[in-house]
Specification:
This protein is an alpha+beta fold. The chain has two domains: 97 residues, Glutaredoxin (3-Layer(aba) Sandwich), CATH 3.40.30.10; 113 residues, Glutathione S-transferase Yfyf (Class Pi), Chain A, domain 2 (Up-down Bundle), CATH 1.20.1050.10. Helix content is 56%, strand content 9%. Strands 2-1-3-4 form a four-stranded mixed beta sheet, with helices on one face. Helix 1 packs antiparallel against helix 6 and helix 3 runs antiparallel to helix 6. The longest helix is centred in the middle third of the chain and has 31 residues. It is globular and about 50 Å long. The chain binds glutathione. The site of glutathione has 10 residues, from loops.
Length: 219
């Protein structure tokens, strides 16, 4: 019985690790890296035929549940291991659930690819391999979805809610901030969207985010 999260913190596995950390769960961390062939072994491909991390394996009384796709992993953990009490990150109402789903799908469809391009070509890749033009185009394209989330955060403020789905931090914030914090090198873009910038900073300033990132050291 128990929950296992496969994947290292320096990857999209940060998302389920962060969710588990927010909920204070006891789980087994299998620190499978995405380089070096570990995601191409027959054992790993039996878990995720895509050959990607993260994977969540939940050994339940009714049988084992396997989840892949990082957003699905985080949403699953919140829904099935959180308590829908209006205090934890678990959606507590239909509206909160809808917000968590739509913003998670939205950020993957509208932002993730450009956010990753920006991060890779401004920060992660060796300078000689970076293509500044690609990062520039990605930054320009991201202005469209960022305007939308900025407007949503402004409306949330008017309702007295500082987060995407509710007055408290939920899995909706976790999923979206896990992508938008890749935009930290896009200073111009972020300063043009001050509510989004402040909200992302608050999300990644949470102790559970820091703890999930630190599991990199333990991996
Ligand atoms: N859409 C997938 C993408 C997963 C993905 O590409 N993971 C990377 C690490 S962040 C990986 O496993 N790469 C290794 C590979 O593709 O061989 C998700 O969100 O889980």
């Amino acid at each position: 019985m128990g929950l296992s999260i496969h994947g290292i913190a320096a990857s999209r596995a940060l998302r389920p690790l962060w969710a588990a950390s927010e909920l204070g769960l006891d789980f087994h961390h299998v620190a499978t890296p995405y380089q070096g062939g570990a995601t191409r072994t027959p054992e790993f491909l039996a878990l995720n035929p895509n050959g990607h991390i993260p994977v969540v394996v939940d050994a339940r009384p009714e049988g084992e549940v396997v989840v892949w796709e990082s957003m699905a992993c985080a949403l699953y953990i919140a829904r099935h291991h959180g308590v829908a009490d209006g205090r934890s990150i678990a959606p507590a109402t239909a509206r909160e659930d809808a917000e968590a789903l739509r913003w998670s799908f939205w950020v993957m469809g509208e932002c993730e690819a450009d956010a990753l391009t920006l991060l890779m070509h401004r920060v992660v890749m060796p300078v000689a391999r970076r293509k500044p033009d690609l990062a520039h185009v990605a930054e320009r394209r991201l202005a469209v979805p960022l305007r939308l989330i900025e407007q949503h955060l402004a409306r949330q403020r008017e309702r007295g809610e500082a987060h995407l789905a509710a007055a408290r931090f939920t899995v909706a914030d976790l999923c979206v901030a896990s992508v938008l914090h890749w935009l930290r090198p896009a200073r111009g873009l972020m300063s043009a969207h001050p509510l989004t910038r402040a909200w992302v900073r608050a999300c990644v300033g949470r102790p559970a985010f820091q703890a999930a990132q630190a599991s990199r050291a333990a991996a």
